[in-house]
Amino acid sequence: MYDSESLKVLCGNSIEEPEVDYDDEIMESETGDPVVEEALREYDFTTITDNMNHPDFKANYLEAMKQIRTYSTKHQQLLADSIVKRLPEKYDFEFSINFDFINQDEINELYRFIQFYEYDHEKFIVTIWKYLNPDSNSLQLEKFCEHNTQKIMSEIEEQLSTRYYPELIANFLRTYNKENLIEWFCEKSKNLRAFILLALRKE
User: Fold this and answer.
1) What are φ and ψ of residue 73, in 5° steps?
2) Minimal CA–CA distance to 196: which of 117, 139, 116?
3) pLDDT at 34
4) Which residues are CB-neighbours of 135 under 8 A, at least 6 positions away?
């Protein structure tokens, strides 16, 4: 049994198929071994898509991206397409806008979005809490979120109207199902509890 889908992909795709002519691929290959290169790319891509919305995402993502950043835009387009296809399953979310990832800037914007969703949201969430301004001495994050959903949504909308956010992040914050957005906000807030309390007590 394989420990992960990405390992299964790596092992399976590393084997040359005897009936396939690899001459063209060898000419375009950087190392002269296109089968291994393709297997490693698939491994890196699957490492990211498998770990979306998983506690280990950040560590796996940062490690895989060291190599992915060296791939051509053409190859990174494949990863971008895979990420978008997995959004409904992993995040219960789909963008309300269409995009083709025809250049590296658009692909990088998608990377920024999944970073924001997964771990790079501290500034955003702490700022929302500062404006919510609950009593830091008795703050119970889950209970506050449960009883103040409209207030949280209003503060998020205020942030979107007064500050710049990249297009995909803004689209997510504007169109994500309200219940899911509150759940996401609360779950990520629990991981940032110490930073939230410190910010509130500085006010």
Assistant:
1) -60, -40
2) 139
3) 74
4) none
